[in-house]
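Hi there, hope your week has been kind to you so far. No rush at all, and the record is pasted right below.
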Amino acid sequence: MELGISVPPALCLRAEDLSRATAEAVNATNTWLRLYRPRRVVLRTSAHEDLEESAQAGRTLSLLNCPPDASALLRTIDQDLLTAENLGGSDGACVMVQEQIEAPLYGVAFYEDGHLTVEAARHTDGITAGRPPQARARVEGNRFHITTQELPIPGMLLTRRLLRTCRLLHEHFGFGVDVEWAWTGAGVVVLQVRPITRSLLERAA
Protein backbone atom coordinates (compact mmCIF):
# COMPACT_ATOMS: atom_id res chain seq x y z
CA MET A 1 0.00 0.00 0.00
CA GLU A 2 1.24 3.52 -0.82
CA LEU A 3 1.14 4.49 2.88
CA GLY A 4 3.63 1.76 3.79
CA ILE A 5 0.93 -0.22 5.63
CA SER A 6 0.84 -3.99 5.31
CA VAL A 7 -2.42 -5.27 3.74
CA PRO A 8 -3.12 -8.91 2.73
CA PRO A 9 -3.92 -9.34 -0.99
CA ALA A 10 -7.63 -9.42 -1.75
CA LEU A 11 -10.01 -9.83 -4.68
CA CYS A 12 -13.43 -8.18 -4.88
CA LEU A 13 -16.09 -10.16 -6.78
CA ARG A 14 -19.36 -8.46 -7.71
CA ALA A 15 -22.47 -10.26 -6.52
CA GLU A 16 -24.13 -9.78 -9.92
CA ASP A 17 -21.29 -11.65 -11.64
CA LEU A 18 -21.30 -14.39 -9.02
CA SER A 19 -25.06 -14.90 -9.22
CA ARG A 20 -24.79 -15.36 -12.98
CA ALA A 21 -21.71 -17.59 -12.60
CA THR A 22 -19.87 -15.51 -15.18
CA ALA A 23 -16.57 -16.65 -16.66
CA GLU A 24 -15.10 -13.34 -15.49
CA ALA A 25 -15.59 -14.29 -11.81
CA VAL A 26 -14.14 -17.77 -12.35
CA ASN A 27 -11.13 -16.48 -14.28
CA ALA A 28 -10.47 -13.68 -11.80
CA THR A 29 -10.48 -16.10 -8.85
CA ASN A 30 -8.15 -18.54 -10.62
CA THR A 31 -5.77 -15.76 -11.61
CA TRP A 32 -5.72 -14.29 -8.10
CA LEU A 33 -4.96 -17.68 -6.53
CA ARG A 34 -2.12 -18.36 -8.99
CA LEU A 35 -0.66 -14.90 -8.43
CA TYR A 36 -0.69 -14.78 -4.61
CA ARG A 37 -0.74 -18.48 -3.64
CA PRO A 38 -2.46 -18.04 -0.23
CA ARG A 39 -2.40 -21.03 2.13
CA ARG A 40 -5.84 -20.23 3.55
CA VAL A 41 -8.54 -17.81 2.43
CA VAL A 42 -11.23 -15.80 4.20
CA LEU A 43 -14.46 -14.83 2.41
CA ARG A 44 -16.25 -11.64 3.46
CA THR A 45 -19.52 -10.14 2.28
CA SER A 46 -19.81 -6.43 1.66
CA ALA A 47 -22.77 -4.21 0.81
CA HIS A 48 -21.36 -0.72 0.18
CA GLU A 49 -19.50 -1.35 3.44
CA ASP A 50 -16.54 0.91 2.86
CA LEU A 51 -18.35 4.06 1.75
CA GLU A 52 -18.56 6.95 4.20
CA GLU A 53 -22.26 7.59 3.60
CA SER A 54 -23.36 3.97 4.05
CA ALA A 55 -20.96 2.01 6.27
CA GLN A 56 -22.33 -1.39 7.28
CA ALA A 57 -19.95 -2.32 10.10
CA GLY A 58 -21.13 -5.40 11.97
CA ARG A 59 -23.52 -6.45 9.21
CA THR A 60 -21.11 -8.51 7.17
CA LEU A 61 -20.38 -12.23 7.22
CA SER A 62 -16.92 -13.84 7.22
CA LEU A 63 -16.04 -17.46 6.45
CA LEU A 64 -12.59 -18.51 7.69
CA ASN A 65 -10.15 -21.27 6.75
CA CYS A 66 -11.37 -21.71 3.18
CA PRO A 67 -9.08 -23.77 0.89
CA PRO A 68 -7.22 -21.95 -1.92
CA ASP A 69 -9.23 -23.71 -4.62
CA ALA A 70 -11.31 -21.64 -7.06
CA SER A 71 -14.06 -24.24 -7.54
CA ALA A 72 -14.45 -24.77 -3.78
CA LEU A 73 -14.45 -21.03 -3.07
CA LEU A 74 -17.09 -20.23 -5.69
CA ARG A 75 -19.22 -23.16 -4.54
CA THR A 76 -19.06 -21.88 -0.94
CA ILE A 77 -19.93 -18.36 -2.07
CA ASP A 78 -22.90 -19.65 -4.06
CA GLN A 79 -24.22 -21.86 -1.26
CA ASP A 80 -23.54 -19.71 1.80
CA LEU A 81 -23.15 -16.05 0.81
CA LEU A 82 -25.29 -15.18 -2.21
CA THR A 83 -28.44 -14.15 -0.36
CA ALA A 84 -30.15 -10.79 0.01
CA GLU A 85 -29.71 -11.08 3.78
CA ASN A 86 -25.92 -11.47 3.54
CA LEU A 87 -25.33 -8.98 0.73
CA GLY A 88 -27.86 -6.36 1.69
CA GLY A 89 -29.94 -6.78 -1.46
CA SER A 90 -28.41 -3.65 -2.99
CA ASP A 91 -26.58 -2.77 -6.16
CA GLY A 92 -22.81 -2.84 -5.79
CA ALA A 93 -22.76 -5.67 -3.23
CA CYS A 94 -19.71 -7.90 -3.43
CA VAL A 95 -17.80 -10.77 -1.86
CA MET A 96 -14.17 -10.19 -0.93
CA VAL A 97 -11.68 -13.04 -1.21
CA GLN A 98 -8.67 -12.32 1.02
CA GLU A 99 -5.55 -14.13 2.15
CA GLN A 100 -6.05 -15.27 5.75
CA ILE A 101 -3.36 -13.98 8.10
CA GLU A 102 -2.16 -16.23 10.92
CA ALA A 103 -1.27 -14.05 13.90
CA PRO A 104 -1.24 -14.17 17.72
CA LEU A 105 -3.65 -11.22 18.07
CA TYR A 106 -6.55 -9.76 16.10
CA GLY A 107 -8.86 -6.88 16.79
CA VAL A 108 -10.54 -3.62 15.93
CA ALA A 109 -9.40 -0.04 16.36
CA PHE A 110 -11.40 3.18 16.11
CA TYR A 111 -9.61 6.48 15.52
CA GLU A 112 -11.10 9.96 15.29
CA ASP A 113 -9.91 13.46 16.24
CA GLY A 114 -6.86 12.22 18.14
CA HIS A 115 -8.79 9.58 20.10
CA LEU A 116 -8.02 5.87 19.70
CA THR A 117 -9.96 2.90 21.08
CA VAL A 118 -8.59 -0.65 20.67
CA GLU A 119 -9.93 -4.14 21.42
CA ALA A 120 -7.83 -7.28 20.90
CA ALA A 121 -8.46 -11.04 20.95
CA ARG A 122 -6.53 -14.20 20.14
CA HIS A 123 -9.11 -15.56 17.68
CA THR A 124 -9.26 -14.47 14.04
CA ASP A 125 -12.88 -13.29 14.29
CA GLY A 126 -12.92 -12.89 18.07
CA ILE A 127 -13.94 -9.25 18.44
CA THR A 128 -16.07 -9.04 15.30
CA ALA A 129 -17.91 -12.23 16.38
CA GLY A 130 -18.74 -10.70 19.76
CA ARG A 131 -16.24 -12.53 22.01
CA PRO A 132 -14.86 -10.63 25.01
CA PRO A 133 -11.46 -9.03 24.30
CA GLN A 134 -8.22 -10.09 25.97
CA ALA A 135 -6.99 -6.51 25.87
CA ARG A 136 -8.39 -3.00 25.62
CA ALA A 137 -6.62 0.31 25.10
CA ARG A 138 -7.62 3.95 24.90
CA VAL A 139 -5.50 6.91 23.84
CA GLU A 140 -6.48 10.54 24.33
CA GLY A 141 -3.75 12.95 23.33
CA ASN A 142 -0.62 11.78 25.20
CA ARG A 143 -2.55 9.69 27.74
CA PHE A 144 -2.56 5.90 27.32
CA HIS A 145 -4.87 3.57 29.28
CA ILE A 146 -4.29 -0.16 28.66
CA THR A 147 -5.87 -3.18 30.36
CA THR A 148 -5.11 -6.83 29.60
CA GLN A 149 -6.86 -9.97 30.81
CA GLU A 150 -3.81 -12.18 30.33
CA LEU A 151 -0.07 -12.03 29.72
CA PRO A 152 1.95 -11.67 27.62
CA ILE A 153 0.20 -9.11 25.42
CA PRO A 154 2.43 -6.27 24.11
CA GLY A 155 -0.07 -3.60 25.10
CA MET A 156 2.05 -0.44 24.79
CA LEU A 157 3.93 -1.49 21.65
CA LEU A 158 0.76 -2.67 19.92
CA THR A 159 -1.16 0.48 20.87
CA ARG A 160 1.60 2.77 19.61
CA ARG A 161 1.78 0.90 16.28
CA LEU A 162 -2.02 1.04 15.90
CA LEU A 163 -2.06 4.73 16.75
CA ARG A 164 0.46 5.46 13.98
CA THR A 165 -1.41 3.25 11.49
CA CYS A 166 -4.81 4.73 12.26
CA ARG A 167 -3.48 8.28 12.03
CA LEU A 168 -2.11 7.56 8.56
CA LEU A 169 -5.40 6.02 7.43
CA HIS A 170 -7.40 8.90 8.92
CA GLU A 171 -5.24 11.48 7.12
CA HIS A 172 -5.38 9.52 3.86
CA PHE A 173 -9.14 8.92 3.74
CA GLY A 174 -10.27 12.06 5.55
CA PHE A 175 -12.72 10.39 7.95
CA GLY A 176 -12.69 8.66 11.34
CA VAL A 177 -11.61 5.06 10.72
CA ASP A 178 -12.89 1.70 11.95
CA VAL A 179 -10.00 -0.72 11.34
CA GLU A 180 -9.85 -4.51 11.54
CA TRP A 181 -6.25 -5.59 12.12
CA ALA A 182 -3.89 -8.47 12.92
CA TRP A 183 -0.71 -8.27 15.03
CA THR A 184 2.06 -10.53 13.73
CA GLY A 185 4.47 -9.80 16.58
CA ALA A 186 6.56 -7.64 14.26
CA GLY A 187 3.89 -5.22 13.10
CA VAL A 188 0.27 -4.42 12.33
CA VAL A 189 -1.48 -5.85 9.27
CA VAL A 190 -4.63 -3.99 8.19
CA LEU A 191 -7.44 -6.35 7.15
CA GLN A 192 -10.24 -3.85 6.50
CA VAL A 193 -10.91 -0.14 6.84
CA ARG A 194 -14.32 1.53 6.93
CA PRO A 195 -15.72 4.83 8.20
CA ILE A 196 -16.81 5.05 11.84
CA THR A 197 -20.60 4.98 12.00
CA ARG A 198 -20.75 6.67 15.43
CA SER A 199 -18.27 9.11 16.94
CA LEU A 200 -16.00 7.83 19.71
CA LEU A 201 -17.57 10.31 22.14
CA GLU A 202 -21.00 8.80 21.40
CA ARG A 203 -19.58 5.30 21.96
CA ALA A 204 -18.09 6.33 25.31
CA ALA A 205 -21.39 7.85 26.40
